[in-house]
Structures are given as structure tokens and as C-alpha cells.
Amino acid sequence: MHAYRSHTCAGLMKDHVGQTVRLSGWVHRVRDHGGVLFIDLRDHYGITQLLCDGDSPAFAALEKVRAEWVIRVDGRVKARDSSLVNAKIPTGEIEVYVTEVEVLGASEELPLPVFGDTEYPEETRLTYRFLDLRRDTMHQNMMLRSNVVRWLRNAMWDQGFTEFQTPIITASSPEGARDFLVPSRLHPGKFYALPQAPQQFKQLIQVAGFDRYFQIAPCFRDEDPRADRSPTDFYQLDVEMSFVTQDDVFAAVQPVLQGLFEHFGKGRKVHADWPRIAYRDSLKWFGSDKPDLRNPIRMQDVSAHFAGSGFAIFAKLLEQDGNEVRAIPAPKGPSGEPVGRKFCDRMNAFAQQQGLPGMGYIFWREAEDGSGMEAAGPLAKNIGPERTEAIRVQLGLEKGDAAFFLGGKPETFEPIAGRARNVIGEELGLTDKDSFRFAWIVDFPMYEKTDEGKIDFSHNPFSMPQGGLEALNGDPLQVYAYQYDLACNGYEVISGGIRNHKPEIMYKAFELAGYPNSEVDKRFGGMVKAFKYGAPPHGGCAAGIDRLVMLLADTQNIREVIMFPMNQRAEDLLMNAPSDPTLQQLRELNLRVVPKDS
């Protein structure tokens, strides 16, 4: 017999009754029923129930084991009584009567339990991640992630893509985040960078003639952490194709993502209609460039109804150029319960918590005199019945519905309006939680104005401007890029673009963002040089693996689907990183650490 096991802890069935077997694993749970021990033994594959009583020579030794000890047992497979069968596990029809036990690895007292669903502080969980990963939910998440990666890899090969690997140590490149720099020992004072993405290399692969590339690529960005983003590194499905338009990229990607979510979505509906929404419209309608379309609410511009009205706050705002008033419709949910004043007051308080003075509202109810429907709320009294009726008709609302209003410059209130839309959709039961809805966000602006008033790239600097070189001779803020994102359930899951493959257009594009030709040659010399020797039109995208798995695992914290994540301060509590370098290391790298000013 094998030194440690004849079967796994998920491998024994009723057909094995009467056989002598050997199992190894972790003690998941111990139950002492007065002289009879029941132990759940767990390994990577599953759980088997062990049974031992005073007649067994192993009883005395087995009495000493505790949770998370690693043991090896020999025993005889017995059928469970029909009333004790556990249909929830594959081994639920049998148990193993233990005749011999060997302790392979004892455990100290646990800093957090593995059995059960008790929640512990994240700091504790990350410090003892190896224990945290033993918990069933975490184990399933990691297996889901592994299976997703394998499925994606197979799907890309089936789609005619070829997998190539790109360098990890490379040059710094402006990708929209800070680089992790790596000092060079052989070249004192110079630094490599960990790639924020394989962007330049995958474009060079196209120039080299390798069409339809993909890679499960590690990416490194020194970013501020968020619940849906790792602060240091992440993996993405990286894709690039030659001789393609935006439509071709969409056509190649949709069946892969559609199939992935259908396969791993646990029966949740995956809508096949992926609308294309212009970036500017997405902000206008949903207050976000990654809208959650499970929520049917679409915001609308209602400025015309407040201009010159009796509601002085909005009327005065609209006298200034660039200001708008937007409405967030709030139709009653599936329950049919009218949206009343209490809910409206709650949403007004929500807006105040978000930093706004408040959020006006109107709700439509049965008139108190029984004459029909009437509009109620402070706004309704100020603007009168004719305007409130026009608003109701425009928004398509009925009795029992409401609407909320925000005014000012759109860029100041859109993010809050978007969050309010999400809260309204959830609280009124309008958001379909049991589905996945995708949307392509297109026509991103090529440039944006920084807080200092300078022109800079708003997204990927390597995207082709719509209109080519001619478009770059006008107002930069009016130039759109062949840049696109894919949103799913309120998260960005893909970002990509059709690339700028012509040197003269690239030089001009970077010039508008403050990079002279010499700087472009210095930073991107390899790619610019390649484009001068026959570059095909090409484009692609990248899908965040961590975020895809997060959605499929139905969690809102990306650290729940990463094996060994950093905490929110970008620290690895298990491996104690970042750590202080030794003096020898600093000498070899010709570096000196300057204390930070207090």
C-alpha cells in the first residue's frame, strides 16, 4: 500500500465497503460521542468521515488529535446507516472505521478557525493566509480561478489565437499608473520597470507578423488599492490581432466571455445582447463609464423643465453655461409598493452623505381629494403642475413612482448620481441580481485636461485617434479614440483599442500631450522604429482575470479570489513585504535610502 494513501478523501463510495484503505489529510472536525469518535478528514479533494471506538487499537492515539492536525489513517470502509447518509458530500454513504493512525504534522492552537463560516479581520486572514485558504469557500474560489484560466486558455486556442510570453523586466512606459522600478546592478543609476501591461510587446508581436496573439499575463502597477483592484499586481487575458477593426475585436471576444460566464455562472442568465454605448452617453444615462445594466434606470436631462421655473436654485444654475439638471427615475419595484416620502427623504440624506447639499425629488400619488394623480414634494410645489406633468411624461412614470434631481456641472454630480441610481435600483428591487449584463463603452475622449490645466491622455496613449492625423490638428479635447471598455454588472472587465500604428500620427498624438519627438524616441524607440518598417493595422484588448473571477464567485472583494494578495496598504503580511534591504544589497545596487522627512 502507498505510504500515505490508497484513496483521496473524496474517492470512497459504497462500492468500497469492506475494503481496507489508507487516507491522509487534515482533521477538519472532531466530535466525541462518549467513547465513540467521529472525525471529518479533509484533503484537497473532499471529506471522509472517520469512526473510532474503544475497541480500536488506534483509539488512544486518535483521542489526542485536534483540528488541523495532519494524520494518516488505516481502516475499513463501512456503510452508513440509511438515516445517517450525508447526501451533501460524495462520500456521504460511507465511513471509515480507523484501526491505525499516524500523526504526520501536529498543529498549534489556531489563530483562526478553518471549520465553519466565522468571519475574522482581514489582517488576521492575510497574516495566516495558508490557514485562510483551507476554508471551503476560499478553496472553492481558488479552484474556480484555476479552472477559469484553463477554460480561457483553451477557448483562445480554439478561436485561432496563439500564446506567447513577453518580458517581465522591461522599460518604463506611461500606462496610466505608477511603475514599479527595479534598480540595475550592472548599470548603476539606471532602472528597469515591471510591465504595467505587455502593451508595447504585444504590438511588436503584430509587427513581427504573428497574428492573433494572447497571453495570461502578469501586470504590475503601483496603485492605490480598492476593493475591486489589487494595489500591486494582477493577471489579465491579453489579446492582440492584426488587420482588424473595432468590430472584429468585439466579434472575437464576445463568444469567449459569453461562454465563460455561461459555463461558470451557476445558472445565472448571461444576456447575449451587448449594446454599444458612447462614453459621453454612459455618463449621462448612468453616471458611470462602467454601468450596471441589470438596473433598468436611465437618467435623463430635464433642464428645460426647470429653466425659468419657480425653483430658484435650479433656475439660477441653468443661467450659467455648462450646467444641467438631471433626473433619476424611480419607478416602483416588482412589489408594487409606491415610492413614498420616507424613501425620498432617505435618498436625500444619501446625497448629503456623499457631499451634496441634497437631492430634490417629486413623487406621484393619489390626490388627497380623490380627483386622480397628483405630484407631491417640495419641488412639485415650486415648479407647478404643468412642469411636473411634463417631467412625468418625459420620464415615463406613473402613479406610485418618483424621480430625483441633481443640478450643476455634470462632472461634479455624475459620480454621485451614478451611485444614487445603483442604490435606488437595489432598494426598489429593480436590479436583476441573478444575471450578467455586458455593454461595450466606446468613443472615449483621446485627451483630458489635468488639474493643472494641461492636456494629457485620458486612456491608453497608443490608441488610434478617430479621424487620424487630421483630427489631431483641431481641438484635442474634441478628439475621440478607437478606445473601448467592456462593462459587466458595474465593473470594467475589459479595456482595449485599435492601435496607432503610424509614426507620424504617434508623434503628433504625444506632442499634444507634452511629449516632444525626442522623448517619444527615448521612451518608445523600439516600437517607433518597428512602425517605420511596415506595421499592420492592429488592435486588441485585455480582460482582468481577477475581476472576472470576482464576478463569477459573487464577491465584491478582489482579495477573495487571489491566492496571496496584499492588504489595503500594499503589504504582504505573510511574507513581510515590503522589507528593508540589507546594506550589502544597497551597496551592490549603488543605492542609498534617504529618510523620509517627518
Sequence of strands across the biggest β-sheet: 6-9-10-24-23-22-19-12
The percent range for helix content is 25-40%
**Shape, please?**
globular
Q: What is the CA-CA span between the terminal residues?
A: 65 Å
Count of separate DSSP helical elements: 17
Provide the gyration radius in Å.
30 Å
What would the average pLDDT be, to the nearest integer? 94
- Which blocks of ≥5 consecutive residues have pLDDT under 50? none
What structural category do the secondary elements indicate? alpha+beta
Report the β-strand fraction as a percent range: 15-25%
Report the count of strand segments.
24
The main β sheet shows up as: 8 strands, mixed
Can you offer a commentary on this structure?
The structure is a single chain. The model has no long low-confidence stretch (mean pLDDT 94). A hairpin with a 6-residue loop joins β15 and β16 (373-376). The chain has an eight-stranded mixed sheet, with helices on both faces. With 598 residues, the chain is α+β, with helices and mostly antiparallel strands. 29% of the residues lie in helices and 24% in strands. It starts with 19 loop residues before the first strand and ends in a 9-residue tail after the last helix. The chain is built from 17 helices and 24 strands.
